[in-house]
Design a protein that fits this description.
Blueprint: H1 4-9, E1 15-17, H2 26-34, E2 39-42, H3 48-61, E3 66-71, H4 77-86, E4 91-95, H5 103-108, E5 112-117, H6 120-129, E6 134-137, E7 143-144, H7 150-160, E8 165-168, H8 174-182, E9 187-190, H9 204-212, E10 218-221, E11 229-232, H10 235-245, H11 250-257, H12 260-265, H13 290-306
Parallel strand pairs: 1-9, 2-3, 3-4, 4-5, 5-6, 6-8, 8-9
Antiparallel strand pairs: 7-11, 10-11
Helix pairs in contact: 2-3, 3-4, 8-13, 10-11
Length: 307
C-alpha cells in the first residue's frame, strides 16, 4: 500500500486523519501516527500556546511523522504558522482560506504543505504557490464544506495538477480507499470514522450519536452565512435551517452557532450543540482504537483491490 503520499510523508499507510477542530488533539494525532497513518492536530480557533502544547505532547508520545491543520480564518493563524516552524512540525494542512502567505516560510523550514481544496481552481493555485500535495474534499465530509462531491472533485483535481491528490469526504472503509485510488488519488483523509476512535476525546454522547446515525441523518446548515457546515440533524441544526428559510439576519444565525461545536464535543450537548459528521456516519458502527481502524480499512482495501 505504498503510494506517492506514503513516500512523501514517510508513513506506512496512505491514510491521513482529518484535522477536526475541538476533536483532533495530541492524543488522537499520536494514536493515528503510531497506527501507521498521519495524525493531525486540529488548531481550529485555539490560541498558539495550545497548539504548541499539543505538538509537544505528540512528540513525547511518538517519533512518527504528524502534522497540524491550520484554519486560516482563525485570528491566531499567523502566530500558529510561526509556531509550526519553531516546533519543527513535519506537515501542515490548511483549510478555510488560501495559505499562500505562509507557504514560503513553511517551505524554508522543510514543512510539507498540503492545503484542503474544494475546487480545481484552488488546487491549481496551490500547486503554483508551492504546495506539495492537495486534499480534494467533497461535500460529503463533516464540518465546513464546498459544493462538489468527492467523486466529481477528485478526478478533476487529479487531472489538473501534477502534485499528489488526497481524497476526502465520504471515506470510512476499504471500499472508499479503493474508489479514491480509482479516481486518481494517492491517499485518503478520514474524519468521521476517527471520531469514534478510543483515543478520541470527544464526549461519549457525541460518539454514540455518530455510531447510531443512519445514512440520511446529516444536513447542511449555514449556507446563508457563506460558511456551510455538515452536521447530524438535531434541534440546533433545525433551528438554524428554520432561520435561514425565514431569511433571518446573518448575525442572528451566527450568534446561534457560536460555541456550538464546543458544546457538542466537550459538554456532550447533542441537542443544542453542533455535531459535525460526514454522510458516511451511517457506515460507522463501533468504537475501535485508531490503529484498528487503520488496519481494518487497509485490509479491506487490499481485498477489494485484488478482485
Amino acid at each position: 500500500m505504498q503510494t506517492k503520499i506514503t513516500k512523501l510523508l514517510g508513513i506506512e499507510y496512505p491514510i491521513i486523519q482529518g484535522g477536526m477542530a475541538w476533536v483532533a488533539d495530541g492524543d488522537l494525532a499520536a494514536a493515528v501516527s503510531m497506527g501507521g497513518g498521519l495524525g493531525l492536530i486540529g488548531a481550529g480557533g485555539a490560541p498558539a500556546d495550545w497548539v504548541r502544547g499539543e505538538i509537544r505532547k505528540v512528540k513525547a508520545m511518538t517519533d512518527k511523522p504528524f502534522g497540524v491543520n491550520v484554519m486560516l480564518l482563525s485570528p491566531f493563524a499567523a502566530e500558529i504558522a510561526k509556531v509550526l516552524c519553531e516546533e519543527k512540525v513535519n506537515v501542515v494542512t490548511t483549510g478555510a482560506g488560501n495559505p499562500s502567505t505562509y507557504i514560503p516560510m513553511w517551505k524554508e523550514n522543510n514543512i510539507i504543505v498540503i492545503p484542503v481544496v474544494p475546487s480545481v481552481a484552488l488546487a491549481v493555485r496551490m500547486e503554483k504557490a508551492g504546495a506539495d500535495a492537495v486534499i480534494a474534499e467533497g461535500c460529503e465530509a463533516g464540518g465546513h464544506i464546498g459544493e462538489l462531491t468527492t467523486m466529481c472533485l477528485v478526478p478533476q483535481v487529479a487531472d489538473a495538477v501534477s502534485i499528489p491528490v488526497i481524497a476526502a469526504g465520504g471515506i470510512a472503509d476499504g471500499r472508499g480507499i479503493a474508489a479514491a485510488f480509482m479516481l486518481g488519488a494517492e491517499g485518503v483523509q478520514v474524519g468521521t470514522r476517527f471520531l469514534v476512535a478510543t483515543e478520541c476525546n470527544v464526549h461519549h454522547d457525541y460518539k454514540q450519536m455518530v455510531i447510531k446515525a443512519r445514512d440520511i441523518e446529516t444536513m447542511v446548515s449555514g449556507r446563508s452565512t457563506g460558511h456551510p457546515v455538515r452536521v447530524l440533524k438535531n434541534k440546533m441544526a433545525r433551528r438554524v435551517q428554520a432561520l435561514e428559510k425565514e431569511m433571518a439576519p446573518i448575525e442572528e444565525i451566527e450568534k446561534l452557532c457560536i460555541g456550538g461545536l464546543r458544546r457538542a464535543v466537550v459538554d456532550g450537548d447533542i441537542t443544542e450543540g453542533s455535531v459535525m459528521a460526514g454522510q458516511i456516519a451511517g457506515l460507522v458502527a463501533k468504537e475501535q482504537s485508531a490503529a484498528d481502524i487503520i488496519k481494518d480499512m487497509i485490509t479491506h482495501a487490499e481485498e477489494v483491490l485484488k478482485v
